Each structure stands twice: as structure tokens, then as C-alpha cells.
Task: inverse folding
């Protein structure tokens, strides 16, 4: 199993080092060369690629949630989903000094589904996702040869996302309305775009956890977790 996981990682790294992929939005996977890259191993490069893709999905999900729940960004006097999303992800520019690193991400998740919460539920929910995910990377945005990630934290973060997504899809207020609109039905066809994007995050975190487990030779403790319990694993 470990050889299989390492083989997948090797293929991903080879793909990342080959011709850049052009994205639908006009972007590219090309990475500018930096002298600091000389102090990185393949595992460091994989961690940065993984983190970049996870953050890209989190940003997309934040904007999608704001578009479906415009009342949330209006609570803060913001006039668009794009501006509200930019406000949250501006925190990455001064991470780990960001206030999000000092905020209890579990409380953020719980506030999102609290009837008495008067704040921006999207900011609370996606801020908790961002803070929890970044904690699984030890609040680092760059990785070098001497850095060592914790496979258990990465694994736990994937399980926590599963719990958070279940709550997002199923939690209801006393009047039966969802706390936040996410997946829905359009023209009689289920729209599961939120679940698919969250699934990408789970897959990336699990892949990196497997790689780090194999590299460090420290086994992950696999937990059996009930999403309905709304209980999170430690990071």
C-alpha cells in the first residue's frame, strides 16, 4: 500500500515538473524558479503543490457560498462575494501572524450553525476550514528540507472536512431552513458542486498524509468517525 501511495506521488511530481498545464481560467501550473527551490526536496515541492490546490479549492468554495448566501457578506457591509472572499484570503499574506491562527477553528465551525450567531456564517465556516487546514501544515506556507509535516494532522484534517461538509449539507434552523445554502436542485437535477470541490480537498490531504506516513515511517491512526456527531479530530 505504501509503495502504491509513493508511486502515485512520484507520478504527480513528474507531472508537475513537466510541461505546465493550462487551466480553464487562463492560469497555469508553471512555477517560477527561485534560489530557495534549491533547499527543497521532492516532498517539500509536493507539500506546496498540495497546499496550493487545497487553498485554491477553499477560495472557490468561499466565493460560491457567498454567492448563494449574499445576506452573509452584507452583514459586514461588504458589497460583493468577491470582496468578501478577498477579505478572508488576505489573511494568508501575513500568515502565521494572522488572527485566524489564534482563533479556535472548532468554535468557528460551531458558530456557523448556532441559531443565536449574528455574524457572517460563511466567514465563520470557511475561516474555520482555512485555519484548520493551515494548522495541518503547521501554519507554514513554504517547506524546506528540514521541515517535517505530521501525517496524522493531515489525515485528521481530511476527516474533519468530511464532518464539516456533512453539517453544511444537513444542518437546519428551527424553521427548517438551512443555515447556509450549498448543494441544491436546479431544474430537477441535483447540483453537488460543493461536495465535489470539498472532495478534492479531502483527496489532496489524504494523498499528502500517505506520502508523509511512508516517508517518516510513522503509521497514521485511522479513526472511525461519525459525521453526524459533529466531533472533530485534533490538529
Result:
Amino acid at each position: 500500500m505504501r509503495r502504491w501511495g509513493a508511486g502515485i506521488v512520484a507520478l504527480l511530481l513528474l507531472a508537475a515538473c513537466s510541461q505546465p498545464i493550462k487551466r480553464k481560467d487562463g492560469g497555469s501550473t508553471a512555477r517560477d524558479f527561485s534560489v530557495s527551490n534549491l533547499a527543497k526536496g521532492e516532498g517539500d515541492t509536493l507539500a506546496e503543490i498540495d497546499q496550493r490546490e487545497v487553498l485554491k479549492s477553499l477560495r472557490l468554495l468561499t466565493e460560491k457560498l457567498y454567492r448563494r448566501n449574499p445576506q452573509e457578506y452584507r452583514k459586514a457591509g461588504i458589497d460583493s462575494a468577491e470582496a468578501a472572499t478577498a477579505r478572508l484570503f488576505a489573511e494568508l499574506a501575513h500568515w502565521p501572524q494572522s488572527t485566524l491562527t489564534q482563533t479556535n477553528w472548532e468554535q468557528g465551525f460551531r458558530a456557523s450553525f448556532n441559531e443565536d450567531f449574528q455574524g457572517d456564517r460563511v466567514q465563520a465556516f470557511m475561516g474555520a476550514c482555512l485555519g484548520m487546514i493551515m494548522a495541518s501544515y503547521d501554519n507554514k506556507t513554504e517547506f524546506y528540507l528540514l521541515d517535517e509535516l505530521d501525517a496524522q494532522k493531515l489525515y485528521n484534517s481530511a476527516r474533519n472536512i468530511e464532518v464539516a461538509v456533512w453539517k453544511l449539507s444537513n444542518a437546519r434552523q428551527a424553521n427548517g431552513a438551512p443555515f447556509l445554502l450549498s448543494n441544491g436542485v436546479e431544474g430537477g437535477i441535483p447540483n453537488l458542486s460543493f461536495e465535489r470541490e470539498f472532495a478534492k480537498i479531502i483527496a489532496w490531504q489524504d494523498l499528502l498524509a500517505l506520502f508523509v506516513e511512508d516517508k517518516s515511517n510513522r503509521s497514521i491512526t485511522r479513526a472511525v468517525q461519525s459525521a453526524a456527531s459533529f466531533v472533530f479530530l485534533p490538529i
